[in-house]
Amino acid sequence: MMFLERCYVMKAFRVSFYMFCMVLFAVCPAMAAEELIGEWLLDSADSGGVFPDTSGYGYDAVVNGASYDSGYGGFYFDGVADDADGADYLDIANAVYPYDFTKDFRITLDVATAATGWRPFFSRRAGSGWQSGDWFMALNNGVITGNGYGVGTYGPGTTIVNDFFWHSIDMWYVSDTDTIYCNVDGKEINEFETSPFKNGTPDNSGHIWIGNHSNYQFFEGWIKNVRVYRVVNVAYNPSPEINSFGNAAGTQTLSWNSPDAAVTWYDVYISTDEELVDNRDASAKVASYASQNSIDYTLLGDTTYYWAVDCFYDPDPEDGVTEQVLWEGLSGDTWNFTTVGNYAVNLTPVTGSEGLSIFTQFGWNVDIEADTYNFYIANSQAELDTAVPVSFTAGGTEISFDPGTLELHRTYYWKLGVVRDGSEYFSSVRWFRTGGVETLEDFNAYATAADVREVWTCPVYQTNELDVGPEFSRYALVVPFGTSDVTYSRTYETAIDFTGVPAIAFEFLYKSAVQGDNPESFNFKLQDESGGVIAEKTVDSVDDFITPEGGSVEGEWHWVYISLADAPNADQVKKMTISVPGQSVAGDLRIDTITLRTPYCSGAIAGDVYGDCVIDIRDFAIMAENWLECNRIPAESCFTYFFQADVE
């Protein structure tokens, strides 16, 4: 406890990073503008083995073994490579973090440790082992030092920092003199005149490691507030921020910082095509601007923009000749940002979907709430152009919409208009196709009879069951019958709309003509909330059901179709009922698979070109469109030879 109390007291009195920067710049060589290009605060637990980079560049670190210590307020590294979690370190891969450390840079971090020996806290390494271009900064028995491949040890410093207290380390590199400078707690500077950064392979191809080096030297203690800055010689600190989302559309101000006061001219490039900006294509150039660090530009919504600023100066402003020379000979970085969407995104159903439910719900996302939405839907693109939309309002950014019951086996075209500030922003036209069958009840989906009883109710003296018999090879609703009337029903929580549905159908098993194998008759009906009948059918003979083609009546499952054409209150279906009147001999009725379906075609009709079991104008239209077309070989026989039809 004394140890922790000592550490907390120290934290209260340690010199802040920003205060010691004032001392730093007063005593070190003049430094150009800086840009934060990596920040790992290590002030909380990682998320799924990753700790975020909060610099705005998104160079997230992969966490290996190290973990957050809430008592110390930083990440703890155990300094051991062969324990249960292996070496403790954070890894930022070169593919993620490609900065060239042969150029000017600066690193700051806070450390707390009591360990002796070599304890690397920050390293850059090209691969496994120790090779050309590798270097690291470390504590050696508590003092700041470092090492580079082919250079050996540089330093050491003199300030002891392995006393369990938090210490702020500030280390920067000046490439012109190939010199490293180091500051500890803002009060001492160590100058390392030999650095590893220009030795061997230029060090811009390796990983950053925090708390480790080359798999055989490891930091022991706590680290937090790791930051990497680059000394910039190009425009920097863009607004909007790099990789930012949710930026407002419309006319907005884009701004940047200049690398030097001598810069007097800027060329600005903006495009939705990154390659055009990278190549400084003339089509991406907005304009050239004198002595200003911002421009106003009109942005579209839902768009990712790429942009860059090149800086120019006049090397001799007193000679009376205006020159524009690229600052340091360097083109600016390419930045990007994404605007807030005026358009809906993530629209569902996905365009091109087949076999969709007629009860499909539509959905989409918006970046900000719309004033209203206009939903357009039709059965063809031509009809969609003149369709009257359904207009509605909805709060939030995740929107769902119920268009009502769709028709079976139909192709639909639809689009969405987002209305905001008097303007309507249309989605692309999308299409999907509904299936020809909508399953309302599949008893194979129930696991037990108890599950059936939660959905299908009956009087207490009756017992409904779910059963499968070896001769029937499927689960089904078993409705026992006897001398008393039997009624089974399923009631929906909310009424269902069957408008436009041609038929409802179900399967039942006709066992045999033996009395008791089947009821003499049974009834199926749809009802509204008040009990009114919407549609019904009483099955009392083999003429009331459809026998499978080529099958016998006995021992087969058969379909019963009930018409919903002109059914009253078809949009208010609340209940399905199966009833069997009292029978002289007891038995059971087996019901399965209740569906909404397109009409059943009992057989082919000559001339049904359209294929809908009806001869009408649509068949004639197809024939007329192809009238006198001929695809015979040889073609000369088309109108000189006539087949005799195989009819009597």
UniProtKB/TrEMBL annotation:
Superkingdom of the organism of origin = Bacteria
The stretch of residues making up the signal peptide is: 1-32
Is Signal tagged as a keyword? yes
Mind listing the UniProt keywords for this protein, alphabetically? Signal
Per the record, the coiled-coil ranges are none
Q: What is this protein called?
A: LamG-like jellyroll fold domain-containing protein
